[in-house]
Amino acid sequence: MSRLASGGRIDRTRPIQFSFNGTPYRGYEGDNLASALLANDVRVVANSVTYGRPRGVFSAGVEEPNALVQVGNDTMLRATQVGLVDGLEAIGLNGRGRLSLEPDGHRYDKVYAHCEVLVIGGGRAGITAALEAGQTGDRVILVDEQAEFGGRLLGAGWNDWLETSLGALRSPPDVRLLTRATAFGHYDQNLVLIAQRLPNGGRLWQARAKRVVLATGAHERPLIFANNDRPGIMLAGAARAYVNRYGVAPGKRAVIFTNNDSTDALAGDLKRAGISVEAIVDVRAGEAVLDTFPSPAGGGGQGGGLGGVTIAPLTGGGSRREVECDLLCVSGGFNPTLHLFSQAQGRLRYDQALACFVPDAAPPNVEVVGAAAGDLGGRGQGTIMPYWVVPSDGQDWSTHFVDLERDVTVADVRRALSTGMRSVEHVKRFTTIGTGSDQGKTAGINETAIIATQLGQPVGAVGVTTFRPPYVPVSFGLMAGRNRGDLFEPIRLTAMHPWHVAHGAVFENVGQWKRPWYFPRHDEDIETAVLRECRAAREGVAVMDASTLGKIDIQGPDAVEFLNRMYTNAFDTLKIGSCRYGLMCKVDGMVFDDGVVMHLGPDHWLATTTTGGAAAVLEWMEEWLQTEWTDLRVRLTSVTDHWADVAVVGPRSRDVVRGLFPKLPLDPESFPFMAIRESETAGIPVRLHRITFSGELAYELWTQSWYGLALWEAVMAAGEPFAITPYGTEAMHVLRAEKGYIICGQETDGTVTPQDLGMSWILSKKKAFIGRRSHRRRDTARPDRKQLVGLLPVERDQLLPEGAQLVVEPDGTIPTKMIGHVTSSYRSATLDRTFALAMLQSGRERLGAMVYAPLNGHVVSATVTEPIFYDKENVRRDS
Amino acid sequence: MAEPHPHPDHLWRNPEPRRSYEVVIVGAGGHGLATAYYLAKNHGITDVAVLERGWLAGGNMARNTTVIRSNYLWDESAAIYEHSLKLWEHLAEELEYDILFSQRGVLSLVHSQGDRREGMRRVNANRLSGIDAEWLTPAEVKAFCPIVNISPDVRYPVIGGTLQRRGGIAKHDYVAWAFARKADEMGVDLIQNCEVSGFDLDGGRVRGVHTNRGLIAANKVALCAAGHSTVLADMVGLDLPIQSHPLQALVSELLEPVLNCVVMSNAVHVYVSQAHKGELVMGAGMDPYNSYAQRGSPHVIEDQLAAACELFPIFSRAHVLRTWAGIVDVAPDASPILGLTPIENLFINCGWGTGGFKATPGAGWVYAHTIAHGEPHPLSEPYALERFTTGALIDEHGAAGVTH
Amino acid sequence: MLIPCPWCGDREDIEFKYGGSADVAYPRDADAVDDATWARFVFFRPNPKGQMTERWVHTAGCRRWFTLVRDTVTHQITTA
Q1: Is C19 touching A (CB cutoff 8 A)?
Q2: CA A346 to centroid of chain Cα atoms
Q3: Residue A315 banded pLDDT, cuts 50, 70, 90
């Protein structure tokens, strides 16, 4: 055991049992996994990713490149960041994570916070800044990535100051303190994302701050020399933290290797902890650690640890000495932690005297304080002699590790440069420096310095690679939060949904809506059920929930003019109490959406849209109204969810409706096709429309949504004597296709004009409408465009798959010329055969001709027909 | 999976720009480098400079998610991407560089009846074009990619999939370096840190470019700077129907192998693969606003990862290591613009949106032809600027859902 | 980004839809222009690197369209 008898912030009265690589160990409350492993003399935590070299704990924080562990099913965690809890089971990872098939049981939440001042980093500078901001009564949030505030002070004997300051911070009402909370992303206008670690999951904070104070401190960087990766070699500041904060002796015999003053206090701390300091090697004194050698295998059961160092004069000549040690504390200076600063578009400059990159121009409302701002006094850097790599004999650079996590050496950097690469970005990509899960926190500036040295350029000119979010790895699960399973996307349900569920509907996702796809009886398959549902609509009466149709309420004195411009057809003559089918194009002349436009009253209209197009159509209309046609006095409101819509369809539909509205005249003269009537049944106010999407006599009964279920049930009751049959979207599709009605988004795909659909009749010649000008363009006016046709497979039973491509020759070689594709295809109860709709090149010239659909292994032949298969004369519709 | 990749000893010279060239290519991204290579190799034109304002292949080439496939909907698109895929299949040998091209299959998941129709339409079209395409049932999806969640109880269940087995991934940087090396070897000057600031025009004809390293004369100038197409075009008064948007992507830590293919889902907005070393590489949706900032909004990443966890519950414990954005230039029909311009001797290649990487060799091939002959290659003829006037767009937006 | 809606104040960009350049005028008489001019209206938009005058609509709020000036490099916004 290397646990010190006293000292540190751990609680020796609260032992914690844990295991590592299957061996049980004991730590204490206040330990993290790294300190507990060191306390138990576990020097080798993992082997390196490429070369399999043994590696130990290197740092005491987020920058750890070596001690990667799996804890339970959680992978690629840093031992330095894992709080010790009872029963924790960890294993070392060789640089690569393992995803478990066990479901992630963690709970992840998101919190959206707003504040005047967000202080990131709870060390001395951050606490001071938060105290100051808290005085003003502003809303302040102070976050720190560690389990407790204090930063480096926790290992430097500032406990009294900390206690007083944190006490003071707890008194203002609007200061929020978050620990184990790492700010990892700094986005536009000071949106900061913060990952907070909680016992069984995490919380993603999204804080929008008027001002951000970055008190993010500095990361110590190592010096580079041969075999600088052995377990026992660690950052000097980390060694100090383990001794002072965790009461652990990370070794028995230490050597200190430095180029700055920060290690001055370390020697004393080590000695007080009973660790002998065998040598202090200071490049400023002309000496360097040239190489290291391993400890003899067997000692403590783990070979490969540090056994000692070779020390040589910087000049290369002179005498060398070997010093045995099991701990080498290295400091090459400090890099201000400017990841967030850079993400927020702050600019950096290289400071020659400090030998590091410091903030230059700060973005608006961002302030950097403390070590992050280049004030390295607190870290005790003092005088520094910039120094990076100790050359070894014979120009062998293959064990001078620059990036420990990715196993990249100085040799790799030199090789990259020798290929002709000059940019630090190229070297990064060639060598993979900085691409590990530590994102090169201890490697990046050293890489830059090596390149600069090699190319004979100033360090500042070489620059650093771009810092990108996240500052620390963040789990997918945390980012996803609760947006999973049923909450992945909103589910929209109609008022009648409970009835559909109770009656066994199979549902289809249509955008966010759940729509009944079909209503199987007993063990019917979809085909049988749909044939039955269609037969009911054609021969008796059937009913469908059409509530998902988009609905836009349109009011204002210029509503007619607005509709005339929006739709291809005109609405001037449409009387109050009537409806008309309308078609819309985009500016490029392509069909956009369709629906029924209803004239409800003076200056009052309502337009329906496709289910999927509702939001887009409203946005489209608003865009024109608000940005182009600002003179039109029209107001739009989405009323999609306000109305429930029950479509009663079939030759017996009038009987059902009569049962519900006995006093309403329903004969074709009193209530003709495309008319609207208001009435009520059983106290339910209903607006009736004679609209059809099946070609049958049909009524759409609208009521306000909260009556929807009641109306539906009333319809079912009134229809019972007529064996009323509920049907779903699939039967709806079949019925409309038999009648040749298109579905926007199925027959059309953004490349189809109304003319292509054979709908020139709906293009008004008397007025301008959106898209009209585009129809004259050369390609759009081509006579041989793809046009809507019907197809009848030669074999009456053979179903053309939707999406089948059509060719002229049944046995053409591949690649072959395609002339169209099947957009809709069904079995028809009415026709007692299969049929399809297709978009076909020069389709209208091919009526009666044969086309072929080569499928995987066979060919379906079909005759081209008009795209209407049922009641061409509209006798049934108008009956 | 673990060995560092062997690279050639020499990749490129770093020459000073000469005062004039036969062809100056503006932009040393994947397309620019491939164009230079094919100019030299296919057309014997080696008096070529490729000018790069930053570091070679540091734009979208360095930022894409490396998906390669050719299963586009329209004949014109399928033809040029298939030409590209055929080149990919022999590129490593030809360039003598292991670009880690891996034909592990690209699986597109289908979640709705609308998706199904469009998927079938594309599969059938691809087959008749001679492009491999398969339709998979949910069980076949699961068999091909075992970690996909095909449970019917999720918000958008997988109801099928389309598969192009010849699709896959390659290592983007190596591809760029491979083209660069060969172009350099044949005498092409690759000039980095050389930013074009204007064009030297003589009436309606271009004669060279002004740069931060002086005037460089050229008989032909070829623009090839995805992310900055309109910035350059504006300098020379050429109007392009292009908008620039951030497209974000992200990468996880190294993981033991879990994902054996590329998976895309348009409905649930994911495309993901696992790179050779083991990191998950994932693309997010495009941010809607115009931007040159190479960064996007974090909610795009949140949506992306929610979708990833929905389709691949196993990913929940993976970590995002790094996010970034490229700037994609998008044309109104989501298809590229490649060909001549109204300015004599000035050529344009832009608007590849999210499809640029997979087109790298194919686009370089046809662009080199177009530049060399002063007229479009047959494969690029449909991609002329003219189409926005005639209306003959190649709309790869919605129908096939092939935004990636 | 934080978008200043003139009606609702500063709101997160997820509440908005982007409307692109505000600098495209609909031809006064669409029928009178030739195909090339028409194409410019339909398909061509400014795409500046720097200050861009653009439209947004507060879809998840007041549904109001408005114009602002945003820098496409820094994403800093000045209301127009």
Answers
A1: yes
A2: 25
A3: confident
Chain CA centroid to CA B334, Å? 13
User: What tokens does A854 get?
Assistant: 């080569």
- B 231-250 residues inside an 8 A Cβ radius of A: none
Using CA atoms, how far apart are residues C63 and C16, in angstroms rounded to an integer? Answer: 9
d(CA A528, CA B262): 37
pLDDT for residue A873 is more than 70: yes
- Chain B residues near residue C75 by CB distance under 8 angstroms: 291, 293
Indicate the average pLDDT of chain A.
95
Alpha-carbon distance of A455 to A597, in angstroms, equals 73
DSSP state of B344: B
Confidence at residue A298, expressed as pLDDT on a 0 to 100 scale: 53
Check residue B137 and give its pLDDT.
Answer: 97
Chain C touching partners, 3 or more CB pairs below 8 A: A, B
Residues A751, A547: contact at Cβ < 8 Å? no
CB atoms closer than 10 angstroms to residue A24: 10
Predicted confidence band at A810 (pLDDT cuts at 50, 70, 90)?
confident
**Which CATH number do you get for residue A443?**
1.10.10.1100
Q: Among A376, A401, A433, which residue terminates a domain?
A: A376
Contact C68, C54 (CB under 8 A): yes
**Is C63 in the B-facing interface, judged by CB distances under 8 Å?**
no
CATH number, residue C72: 3.30.2270.10
Q: Is A190 left (phi over 0), alpha (psi -120 to 50) or beta?
A: left
pLDDT tens readout for residues A41-55: 999 999 999 999 999
pLDDT tens track for A819-845: 999 999 999 999 999 999 999 999 999
Helix (H, G, I), strand (E, B) or coil at B109: strand
Q: Read off the pTM.
A: 0.96
Across the interface, of B234, B240, B293, the residue whose CB is closest to C73 is B293
Q: Percentage of chain A surpassing pLDDT 90?
A: 93
Chain A residues in contact with C17 (beta carbon < 8 A): 619
The residue that leads in pLDDT, A303 or A385, is: A385
How many domains, chain A? 3
C15 falls within a domain: yes
DSSP characters over A203-261: EEEEEEEEEEEE---EEE---B-TTTTSTTEEEHHHHHHHHHHH-B-S-SEEEEEESBG
Q: Which range, of A75-79, A644-648, A812-816, averages the lowest pLDDT? A: A812-816
Shared domain check, A188 and A150: yes
Whether C30 is covered by a domain: the verdict is no
Q: What 3-state class would DSSP assign to A583?
A: strand
* Residue A18: domain span: 11-57+69-97+222-331
CATH number at residue A37: 3.10.20.440
Structural domain containing residue C74: 2-25+36-79
C60 in contact with B, Cβ within 8 Å: no
Residue B297 distance to chain C (closest CA, Å): 7
pLDDT band for position A317 (50/70/90)? confident
For the residues A405-420, what does the mean pLDDT come to?
Answer: 97
> Among all residues of chain B, which has the CA nearest to that of C35?
B389
Counting as low any pLDDT under 70, the low residues of chain B are 1-5, 398-404
* Helices B360-373 and B172-185, axial angle in degrees (round to 10): 30
Asked if residue A152 lies in contact with residue A167, where contact means CB atoms within 8 angstroms, the answer is: no
Q: List the domains of chain B with CATH numbers.
A: 17-64+172-242+332-390 (3.50.50.60), 102-168+243-329 (3.30.9.10)
> HEC states along A12-58?
EEEEEEEEECCEEEEEEECCEHHHHHHHCCCCCCEECCCCCCEECCC
**Are residues A365 and A315 both part of a single domain?**
no
User: If 0-12 CB within 10 Å is exposed, 13-18 middle and 19+ buried, where does residue A811 land?
Assistant: exposed
- Cβ contact (<8 Å) for A777 and C35? yes
